[in-house]
């Protein structure tokens, strides 16, 4: 699968570059065109913005980041009642269905322990994963009003997290594979990493029955000026925040 510079993907309309409160991020026209679906991925941020530092590094206590992150995402998605659900990622194959019973209240952030994927029918809940080479995989069925977000790295891919989560999305959330789209966001591309993560996760999506698969074509290692790469930067890097929400 082809790696492309960010400028080339912008030129062909595969992504759109936006900025809010000094934070640069990408949106995806293939997802934006789905009614009621919003998604984005933050980029490496220039300068020394306190907001950018919070978005790039979540190693602070939850009470110090919750309000800032939720408010920013609420503005980005024009959803003032937004809340945020994320997982404490452990490179496993565990997922959570965010329901009215376990969802964070408006304006709040909830982290689920040992979770690398989230899915929901509930509107105004921003599902969040953090990556710096691992794959953020967005899954959406606009007709069924359901969205999902997967964090898939080497270990998770080996455990077939994408296959298991996609099957659960289609089964537990009663979605239709014919109406379901998946998008693989910025991540380390095949050829820049010993494991072919793009190819393997695409195969897992197809094995679950999802055929509408969009590749951003954006390799984090090939776009270091705009993206974080754990491998290229030997672990000394920030994180890119990817999120999807129903509005």
Class computed from helices, strands and strand pairing: alpha/beta
| Count of domain modules | 1
Largest sheet: 7 strands, mixed
List segments where confidence is low: pLDDT < 50 over at least 5 consecutive residues. Answer: none
Question: How would the blueprint of this fold be written?
Answer:
Elements: H1 6-11, E1 16-20, E2 23-27, H2 29-32, E3 37-42, H3 50-56, H4 62-76, E4 83-88, E5 95-98, E6 109-113, E7 117-120, E8 125-131, E9 135-141, E10 146-152, H5 154-158, H6 161-172, E11 180-184, H7 197-208, E12 212-215, E13 240-246
Parallel strand pairs: 4-6, 4-8, 5-7, 11-12
Antiparallel strand pairs: 1-2, 2-3, 3-13, 7-10, 8-13, 9-10, 9-11
Q: How does this model look, in words?
A:
With 247 residues, the protein is of the alpha/beta class. It has one domain: CNF1/YfiH-like putative cysteine hydrolases. The protein has seven helices and 13 strands. The protein has helices at residues 6-11, 29-32, 50-56, 62-76, 154-158, 161-172, 197-208, and strands at residues 16-20, 23-27, 37-42, 83-88, 95-98, 109-113, 117-120, 125-131, 135-141, 146-152, 180-184, 212-215, 240-246. The strands form two sheets. Strands 1-2-3-13-8-4-6 form a seven-stranded mixed β-sheet. Helix 6 (161-172) runs parallel beside helix 7 (197-208). The radius of gyration is 16 Å and the shape is globular. 47% of the residues are buried.
